Predict the structure.
Amino acid sequence: MCGDENMRNEYNFSGGKRGKHHKAYREGHKVHITGENGSVSVQYFTREEGSVMLDPDLKSYFPDDESVNRALRSLVKS
């Protein structure tokens, strides 16, 4: 679900700051998951060794691994 039609009236993001946690999220983050029985588990997510994250403005130019690798290989070919 996405779009304004799915937003509830009680949601208020007027004091929010876009990208506030962007840098920390990219470095690694944890998620607290609450089970139906009330138990809480924590999962940690980090980037895999050698992984690279593209900035959003580059995604339309490099939609997949193949396009990124092709572009990089053209740069290092000499």
Observations:
- Residues 15 and 30 are 24 Å apart (CA to CA).
- The longest helix spans residues 65-76.
